[in-house]
Amino acid sequence: MTFEQQWIEYDYNPFVLFSSSGKILSLNSEAQFLLGAITTEELFNLATTYANVTFGFKTTFVELEFGRYRFFALTVGYENDDVIGIKLYQAPSFKISAQKPVGELTNIYALVDLCMLTNSINSKIVFEKDFDPTIPEVILDSNNFIKILNKTYSCYKKNEKISTKIFYRIGEHIKFEKKKYSLFSIEVSSENIDKERVEELKTLAANTNFYIDVQKKVTINMPMITS
Question: Is 122 helix (H, G, I), strand (E, B) or coil?
C-alpha cells in the first residue's frame, strides 16, 4: 500500500469507489463501518445524485445522518463512465471535558433499567431497549447520571413509546492523562421532543460534566473508564 493509499485508508471520512453498475470496487476503513448504517445502493444513489453533470469533481454542502454518522458535505468525482467515487465529510461528533470523570465503578445497564422503571410508574409509555451487552462496569458519578437520564426521559413524556439504545462508538476515543479510552453512548429517542425540557437538560449536563448531543435523539456520550 502506497503512502497516498494509506492516507485514504485511515481517513476519518468514508470514501468509496463504485463501478457504473453500483458495485463497490474499493473503500476505506471508515466506509466499512458506515455500511453498517446505510446500504450500498443508498450510497451509490448519493454518488449519482450529487455528481457533476460532466466529468470532474463536485463538492456539495448537505446535512446527512445515517445511524450514529452525521455528515456536513460530500465530494463526488468521476473521469469516465466506468468508475465514480464519493467521499463524505463527518461533522464533529462531540467533545468531552478534559477533566477525567470521577465516581464509582457502576453497572450502566442497572442504572438505565432503574431510570426506565422509575419513569414507567403511573405511565402508559412503552419503554423499549436495545443494549450492547458487552460494555463493562465503568466509573461514573451515578447520582448525576441518573439525574441526566431522568431529565432526558422527561423530554419525551408526551410520546407513547421511548427507545433507549446503548452502544460502542466504534473507532472513537478520548485521552485522559495520556491514556486512551474507548467511548460508548446511551441514545434515547421517540417521535416528539419537548424543547423547553431540552434546554433544562442542556443546563443540567453542563453543570454535571456530562456531554449530550441533542438532535431529534438525545445521546449521552461517555468514556469507558474501568479503573
Answer: coil
Let me know the angle formed at the C-alpha of 28 by 23 and 32, rounded to the nearest 5 degrees.
70
Which residues share a beta bridge with 166?
Answer: 131, 186
Report DSSP state, residue 38: S
Given a cut of 90, whether residue 213 has pLDDT beyond it is: no
Which domain, by its residues, includes 72?
A: 3-90
pLDDT in tens, 117-127: 999 998 999 99
If asked whether residues 168 and 74 sit together in one domain, one would say: no
Statement: residue 214 has pLDDT above 80 = yes
* 109 and 86 together in one domain: no
17-50 tens-digit pLDDT? 999 999 999 999 889 988 988 999 999 999 999 9
Nearest to 164 by CA among 201, 197, 120: 120
Q: Look at the alpha carbons of 34, 39, 40, 45 in this order and tell me if their dihedral is positive or negative.
A: negative
Pairwise CA distance, residues 204 & 151, whole Å: 9
Question: What confidence tens digit (pLDDT) does each residue in 183-210 have?
Answer: 899 999 999 999 889 999 989 988 888 8
Q: What is the pTM of this model?
A: 0.62
Diameter of the chain by CA atoms?
A: 63
- Amino acid sitting at position 199: E
**Local structure of 136: helix, strand or coil:** coil
- Indicate if 141 and 186 belong to the same structural domain: yes
Residue 218 and residue 117 share a domain: yes
Burial 124-151 (b: 16+ CB within 10 A, else e): ebebeeeeeeebeebbbbbebbebbbbb
